[in-house]
Design goal:
The complex is a heterodimer.
Chain A: H1 17-25, E1 32-34, H2 37-48, E2 56-57, H3 60-69, E3 84-86, E4 98-103, E5 106-112, E6 115-118, H4 121-129, H5 137-145, E7 149-157, H6 172-181, E8 187-192, H7 198-208, E9 213-220, H8 230-244, E10 250-252, E11 255-256, H9 264-277, E12 281-284, H10 299-302, E13 313-316, E14 320-323, E15 328-331, E16 342-344, H11 347-356, H12 367-375
Parallel strand pairs in A: 1-4, 8-9, 8-12, 9-10, 9-11, 12-13
Antiparallel strand pairs in A: 2-7, 3-7, 4-5, 5-7, 6-7, 14-15, 14-16
Chain B: H1 13-24, H2 31-47, H3 57-69
Classes of the chains: A alpha/beta, B mainly alpha.
Chain lengths: ~375, ~70
């Protein structure tokens, strides 16, 4: 049995065709909130149930509970604020109105405004990111990019941002059917935003040894300079799954989402999203959703202890590495040899090798994957 | 913003004392913390027993068609 959606019900907030035509036909009459790509993806994730049980952007009571208790006002575990902000001077609507949420002048959703409240930037940053240091990208966003007011209310999805990777895009309704069709009862979710090296593969396969299938779910969204481009990650993973996974043991599908880099809190959020896709388990590795040295390497694993009612089982891993003495990929608990024998997997190493045109050893990256990375004319985000 | 809203429930004094003793040997800060933790686990288990997928037979056929077209099944 695939996992039940978070809160017990898969939320679908897609406007009917009639409703959509009516709203878009009268679009000029609605007040508009201009949203960025982050909120555009949030709209889509609410509409398709990736964020179940959320059916809209958070009202004050929910945000307060999320910040202070890491739970929604109905006590369900929820760690990340899902909010939309506005500046006072662009607020030409009130509670009870319907507004359009538009991304680059394209209406993506209609929202029934239920609450308008002031953003406490300091509290938000301290509680979500554990810091108010502006060098943290999430904190920077809170202090420099978010408006002064938050607007909460239910949404209905009208449209989505163009998706160049539609071939790899499945909604929770679809993954839940797919898992059932494959006869999977236990599914482990793997979140990634990187091209795969053997360390990733061994984590995935170790977890796969104990479940029916793995759901490899790369995050597609705005990335940092120097990260692999989304198309490179997808092509690399396609090759890996094709050549190194048993038939029908893995599903590769993207989620459109913008990372917040909130470390432990975001790890819980990632687990909830995968639960809604139908996963029963979720892999949490080293420094999950972290950035710089803002979080301890295993903080994102520790936080799961606080949620006995999460409804998805975390699977914790330490770091895998190649050991010359063992002659294979191992980890701390099964390798007795010292550091001089160990080759650590490093994204930086792979990046430098590609930029310098050096061969990548096959105990670091599979040759088929390396070919994808090396043959791409411009594999990195600039 | 407050630290959360609380209410009081009654449990037998003898049970309270058992939990208090147990809590001293664990990472829980108080009997209330322990009881909250255990209840959340139990409540979630019962809640998860009630669920039906939200799609109709027609939805199901359409989803399967798309999954086939994409090569997933």
């Amino acid at each position: 049995m695939v996992s039940k959606p978070h809160g017990g019900r898969l939320i679908i907030r897609i406007a009917s065709e009639n409703r959509r035509s009516a709203v878009l036909g009268a679009a000029d009459e609605y007040p508009v909130i201009s949203i960025g790509l982050r909120e555009a993806y949030d709209v889509e994730n609410i509409g398709y149930g990736v964020y179940s049980p959320l059916d809209g952007f958070m009202v004050y009571e929910d945000l307060e509970n999320v910040l202070m208790n890491m739970r929604l006002s109905n006590d369900l575990p929820w760690t990340m604020p899902i909010v939309v902000s506005v500046d006072e001077d662009s607020m030409d609507f009130g509670v009870g109105d319907e507004v359009l949420l538009s991304y680059m002048d394209r209406p993506l959703a209609v929202m029934q405004v239920e609450d308008i409240y002031r953003l406490d930037r300091r509290l938000y940053a301290e509680r979500v990111f554990g810091t108010t240091d502006p060098s943290h990208p999430g904190v920077y966003n809170v202090f420099r990019e978010m408006g002064e007011y938050l607007v909460g209310g239910r949404i209905e999805l009208l449209d989505t941002v163009d998706n160049p990777y539609a071939r790899f895009y499945l909604r929770p309704m679809e993954t839940r059917v797919l898992f059932r069709e494959r006869g999977w009862k236990t599914i482990v979710g793997f979140q990634t935003r990187n091209a795969p090296h053997l360390g990733h593969e061994y984590v995935q396969k170790t977890a796969l040894s104990f479940v029916d299938g793995i759901f490899i779910n790369p995050v597609v969204g705005r990335k940092k300079r120097g990260d692999f481009k989304d198309e490179v990650i997808l092509e690399a993973y396609s090759e890996l799954v094709k050549h190194y996974y048993p038939k029908d043991s893995a599903v590769l599908s993207i989620v459109r989402y913008e990372m917040r880099y909130a470390g432990p809190r975001e790890a819980i959020h990632h687990a909830i999203m995968r639960k809604n896709f139908g996963c029963t388990h979720f892999i949490v590795g080293r420094d999950h959703a972290g950035v710089g040295d803002f979080y301890g390497p295993y903080d994102a694993q520790e936080i799961f202890r606080e949620f006995p009612d999460l409804g998805v089982t975390p699977v914790f891993f330490k770091e895998f590495f190649y050991c010359r003495r063992c002659g294979g990929i191992v980890h701390e608990r099964i390798c007795p040899h010292d550091e001089s024998n160990r080759v650590r997997f490093s994204g930086t190493y792979v990046r430098e090798a590609i930029l310098e045109g050096r061969d990548i050893p096959d105990y670091i990256v599979r040759p088929e994957v390396a070919r994808v990375l090396m043959s791409h004319p411009d594999p990195f985000v600039s | 913003m407050g630290q959360g809203k609380y209410t009081t429930v009654s449990i037998p004094k003898s049970l309270y004392n058992r939990i208090k003793k147990l809590v001293e040997e664990t990472g829980f800060k108080s009997v209330s913390d322990y009881v909250t933790y255990v209840l959340r686990e139990v409540v979630a288990m019962h809640e998860s027993e009630r669920y039906e997928e939200p799609f109709t037979e027609k939805d199901l056929e359409e989803i399967k068609k798309r999954l086939k077209a994409l090569g997933y099944i």
